Give the backbone structure.
Amino acid sequence: MKRPFFSFGIYKDSLRQLRLAGIFLTALTSVLVCYTPIMTLLGMYPGFYALAWISWPIELIPFVAAPILILLPLHFQNRRADSDFYHALPMTKTALTASRFAASATWCAVVAFVPSLLLILLSVIPPHTPWNVLGNALLLKSGAAFVASLYVMVIVVLSASLCGKTLSTLCTAFVLLAAPRLIIGTVSHLLLDQCVVLPPDSGRALLDGLSQNLLGGNVTDPVSWIVTCLKILLLGALALWASSKRPSEIAERAALSPALHVVLRTLLATLLCMPSISILLENNNSSVVPVPLLYILALAVYYLYEVLTTRSAKSLWKATLWLPLVVAINVLMIGGVNLGAQLITNTCPTAEEIDSVSLSRIVYRLNHDGYIRETGYGYRPETADYYDSQLSENVFFNISKNYALSEGTRVALTDEESRRIVSEALARYIKEVGAPSHSIYNSDLVPLESLVGDRGIVYLADVQIRDGWFTHDRRIALTEEELKALVKKIDKQAKLPLMMDSIFTYDLYQGCTHYSEETGLDGGNAEVGFDEDDPKSYFHIRDEEGTVWVTSKHLEAAEAILDESGNDEFTPAVHVTLNTDGAFSLRDASLHNSGKLLYIYYGDNLMYAPVVNEPIYDGEVIIRGSFSTLRDAEGFADLLNSQIERE
Amino acid sequence: MLCIKNLHKRFGHIHALDNVSLTVPRGTICGLVGSNGSGKSTLLRVIAGVMRADEGHVTLDGERIFENPALKQRILFVSDEPYAPQGATMRRMTAFYRSLYPTFDDARRAELQAQFRLDDDTPIRSMSRGKRRLAAVCLALSAKPQLLLMDETADGLDPVMRHTVKSVIASDVAARDSSAILVSHSLRELESLCDQLALLHDSHLILDRDVFDLKRAAYKIQVAFDHPFTKERFSGLSVVQYEQHASVATLILEGDRDVIETTVSAMEPLLFEMLPLTLEEIFLYELRSLDYDYTALLGGDDA
C-alpha cells in the first residue's frame, strides 16, 4: 500500500493560509533588523553598529515567530469541523502533519533569512555603510534562529499530539523545553558538581539561552530553582486542565498516526540524546560531562513518552527497536553540523587580502555551556573580582560551574592559568566544530586554529577583507610577535584605506598608537608604533605651550553621559573624574591657563579643547563634541577606564 | 462493499461505539439514524478514517480504510459543519480537490454548481449555512466517490434544495453503482431516499434492515364497517397498532399481505385500503420490543 509522507496540495494550502502571518512577521523582523542601518544610511545615526546590535530581532524568531507559525496550522485540531475535513482527506496523518509543518518551516525560513538578506543588500548600497555587516555571520545567525525554530516547532507538534488544545499545547511545549534542562542541570550539579557541555550548534545554544531566559533554571540558586520548578508545575497543571477541555472528537490523538508517532518519538529521543552523543563523539571529555547519566535520563523520557502515548507496555519493545535509528540520526546531525561549519568557514586571510587593521586585546568569555561565545577587547576591569583578587592583569574568563548558570562567574587568572584554559577550551571548541570556526555572537569570526597550544597572551586583529562587492570583517588571533610582524607588514603596504569607524580606532593594543591622521586616513602608509613609556600615547591634557598637566595615571573613572546642551537637548559626552593628584594638576593647569584653551588628547587625537574661564578644583572634566552617539561616548569611556592604574 | 465489523470506540470513559457491525453493499443508500449522542457522527468519522477504531475494523472492498490514502480517494465525507479554509472560494477549492482526488470531474462540478447556483469567486465562509453545505455537496459529488458519507444531509437547506440534493445523491448512487451513508436524527429526512436503515442507540446498533424488507414485514390498512366494531374483530390477525375514529379504523398488521387481504375482505368492510407504511410506523413496529424512545426521531425537520 502506497503511503506518501507528503502532500503538495496541503503544503500549498497551508502556505496560503499562513501567508498573512508570514508576511507580517517577515516585515516586522525586517523593520527591526534594518531600522538602524537605514537610519544610518539616511545620516540619522552615523556610527558603528555591530552585528549583535542590529540582528537581535532574529534571535526572537524561535520564541515568537515559530510558535505562531506552527500553532496556526495546528489550530484545525481544536475544531471538529476543521479536524474532520483535514483528517478525511486522502492522505496519511503523517503526510498531513508533515505538509503543514513544512509550510510553517518555509515561512519560518522566510522570516529568518529575508531580514539578513535585506541587510546584506543594504550593505552594498553606496555610499559604503559604516556598520559592520558580516554576510556569513549574519546568515549563520539566521540559520541558528531557523534551526532553533525547527526545534521549537517539533516540540509544539509533539505537544499538540499529546494535548490538542492550543493553550494546553503551549504549556506542554514550555514544560518540554524547560524541564529537561532543569533536571539535567540539577542532577549534574548535585551529584557531579560538573557542568554539562552542549554541542556547539548555535541553534541549540540559542534555544537553550532563550528557554532559560523565559523560564529560568539556575540550579545553584535555591530560590531560582524553586521558582523554576513551580513555574514548570504550574504550566504542567495548566496543560492538563486545558487538555481536559478539548472536544472529545479530537481526543485519542486523532492527529497522530502510528508512523508520525514513531517520527516524533525518534525526534524526541534525538533531542534528548544529542548532548550525550555529541560528547561521546569527542571521546567523552571527562572534565565536564556525566555521559551515562544523560543517557539514562534521555532513555527514561523516551520510554515515558512511549508509555504515555500508547498506554501499552507492549510498545516498549517496539520503541527499543527504534533506538538504533535515534543514534544514527544523532550521528548524522552532528556530522552535518560539523560538515556545515567547515563548508562555510573561511580560512585566515593573507596579508594581501587585508585592507585595514585595528588591534585589541582579547577577552574570552566562556559561556555557561563551556564554550567561547563572546570576545571583547581591551582591559575592562568590570567587576570587583578583578580588583580584589589581584591575581593578574590577564585575560578575563567567564566560567560557569554548571549547566544552568548562564552568567557565570568572572574571575581573574594568572598567566599560566589563562594559557592553560585558553588552550584547553580552544582545543575542545576546535575539535567539536571543526576549526576554524565562528563565534557568531558579537559578529566575530575567529579562526582559532592557530591558537591551539601554548601561545601565551593572544591579541585580536580586526581586519577588513574586500571580496568583490562585499567587505568582510574578520578578527584574527595573534601572538604579540605575530601582531607586531603583521603591523610591520601592513605598514609596508602602499595604500591602506582606513575603513573602521573613528571610535574603533581607539580600541588599540595598549601602548600601540593608531595610524596617524597624516598618513593613515588618506591612504598613505600607516605608522604604527609601540611606545609604552610615552604618556602622550594615552589620555592627556596639555596647554597651548605643549606642557602636559594630566595623563592616564591621573584617571580615576570615566563615564558616558548625556550632557544637557540647552533647549532640552542632550549631547553624548564623557565625564572624567581625576584622582587626587590629577585634581591638583588640573587645578594648577586651570590657574596657569586662565582664559586660554586646554587641549584634551587621546594619543594624537584631539578630543576637546575647552576655554578655561575659572579655576577647576573638583578634578572633573566633561569631554564633549567628539561623540556622535552615546555608544561612541561609552566606547571612549571604556577605553579610558581600561587605562586606569590600579593599586 | 463497506463492511464494519465489531467496531468499538472509546473516548476516555465514554463508550461511543460498542460492538457495531454493519454492511453497506454497492448501489445502496444507507440511512443512519439515532438520537443525539448515540454515536452516529463518531461512526461516520471512523468510517471516513478521521479516527482509528479501538477494536474491530472498517473495510471497503476488503481493504482497511484508516491511513489508506488510495482508498480514501474513493471516499468523501461531508461533515455536519462543512469546513472551508479562510478565504477559499469554489474555484480554489476545486483546484484543491482536483489535486487530491484523481476522479474529480470538472464538468460534473460545473453542472452541479449551476444547479446549486453557487458562485465561483465568493468566499465560501461568507456564504449562508445552506450554501456552504451545497458547496460541500457539490465538491464531494464532483469527486465521484465510491462511498459518500454525509452528516445531517439536508441541514440548513430550503425544501427545494433539499429535494434537489436528495435527487442528485440518489441518481449519482444509481448511475455509478456507488454507496452512500446519510446520517440524520430525523427519520422523515431519509424516508424517500434510503434503501437501508440503521439505528444507533446508546452506542449500539440496534437495527439494520433493508427498507424494502421492512416494508414487507408489516402493512397498514384502513377499514370501515357499517356496524360498530372493536379491535377484537381483528383477533385473527397480528395487530401491531390499532386506531379507531368512529367507524373507520387504521391498523398496522404483521404477516403475509395475501392473508391479510383475504381475511379482511372476508369481513365485508365498507372500506378497505392498503396504505403505504411510513418509516416512522415501521420503526414503531420494529422497536416496540425495545426500550427505546423512538419519538425523538419523529421530531426532526419536516420533509
Remarks:
- Residues 13 and 54 of chain B are 13 Å apart (CA to CA).
- The two ends of chain B are 29 Å apart (CA to CA).
- The longest strand of chain B covers residues 14-24.
